[in-house]
Amino acid sequence: MWQVWWRRLLAVAFAGFIAAAGKWLATALSVQTARLSGLDPSGHDAQSLVSAISVAVVLGLVWRNAAGVDPLLRPGLAWVVRNSLRLGIVLLGFKLALGTAGQITRVALPVAALCIASALVMVTFINHRLGLPRRLGALIAVGTSVCGVSAIVATGPAIDATDDETSYAVACVTIFGLLAMFTYPWIAHAAFGTSPMLAGIFLGTSIHDTSQVAGASLMYQETFSAPLALQAATVTKLLRNMSMAVLIPLIATRFRADRGRLTLREVRSAVPGFVLLFLGAIALRTLGDAALGGSAAALVDWKAFLGSASTVSTWALTIALAGIGLSTELATLRGLGLKPLLVGFVAAISVGVVSYLSLSLLAGRGSW
User: Fold this and answer.
1) N or C, which end of the chain has less CB nearby within 10 Å?
2) pLDDT tens-place string over residues 160-189
3) Exposed/middle/buried for residue 334 (C-beta within 10 Å: 0-12, 13-18, 19+)
4) Is the pLDDT of residue 85 over 80?
5) Across residues 236-260, what is the average pLDDT?
6) What is the pTM of this model?
7) What is the number of alpha carbons within 13 Å of residue 247 lying toward its C-beta?
């Protein structure tokens, strides 16, 4: 047992080193860019011209694919990614009060529902036209529309998918999710730059995996000084995550009629427990603001706690994204084939287009 924890500690240190190197290199590149552009390099905005998240992910990818990662460290890295991401998201809940979370949910819920429905329909259609296995199409659809790799892993056993089908679906989500993570923040700013909330909802509905949404929204926050975008993206993505409790049983009934219905335990396992902790953090933030508002000394301590929670959240998410880079081996994606890639591409584009059109309509009507 101690060997497992020792390897996990080494993995934490390794991912933390990549995250710290990414932050340092991003700051250095930002300062140099500011000087070349004639800006004050000591200003806060000038020091965030290059996103630390994107640099950390790229450093992790380069290290994994150029130097490699010891196989003994890989299980530890998977543990780091999973738990650092959950910690970062839970602590992010302390940035949100119930009023703000409710406002985001009111706008995000119908957009997320449209995106999920469009991905399921489009992927089913194109997968059938290309003659690919139905289970592979179902996995790509649920991974694109709901919760990335987590949804694929949860759905695979429920529909008796093979290991190859699961691996192909994970590869598709990884490829197009990473591409979206690096490009969609700029698209979001070009389309919804005047509304950080709409930009965040776009990122939360159009990018696949929870870690990729966290990375893209952190890039947006760092580059455009828009914390509301990060909050909106997180709330929106967790709404999609919670839909797994409904969608996975529905999809499973199409493939396992001879095996009966899913058990209550299987349905419960489809919704990550950290989502409930995130909601609890929002409730604590709301209660804390209300209870401590009349005490100046207590309010100072409360704000210090919230500041610390924000700092730890940012570092935890950065370490998780560095771990994603260290865990992604590009060579394993070469044998995927063109047809599954085409299905994944259509799924990714359809979700992005539906999200953009829906939010543009809301922006035009002032409904948000």
Assistant:
1) N
2) 777 777 877 888 888 888 889 889 999 999
3) exposed
4) yes
5) 73
6) 0.81
7) 26
The CA dihedral of 90, 96, 98, 103, to the nearest 10 degrees, is: -120
Buried/exposed code over 212-250 (b: 16+ C-beta within 10 A; e: otherwise): bbbbbbbbbbbbbebbbbbbbbbbbbbbbbbbbeebbbe
Residue ranges per structural domain of the chain: 86-365
DSSP string, 92-161: HGGG--HHHHHHHHHHHHHHHHHHHHHHHHHHHHHHHHTT--HHHHHHHHHIIIIIHHHHHHHHHHHTT-
DSSP 21-78: HHHHHHHHHHHHHHHHHT--TTSTTGGGSS-HHHHHHHHHHHIIIII---GGGHHHHH
Determine how many CB atoms are found less than 10 A away from the CB of residue 66: 7
d(CA 233, CA 319): 19
pLDDT above 90 for 21:
yes
- Give the three-class secondary structure for 312: helix
Q: Please check whether residue 76 is in contact with residue 315, taking contact to mean a CB–CB distance below 8 angstroms.
A: no
CA separation for the pair 177, 174 (Å, rounded): 5
pLDDT, averaged across the chain: 82
Kindly state the tokens that stand for 239. Answer: 């709404």
> What are the distances in angstroms from CA 324 to CA 108, 174, 259, 282, 353?
27, 10, 36, 27, 26
Confidence band for 293, pLDDT divided at 50, 70 and 90: low
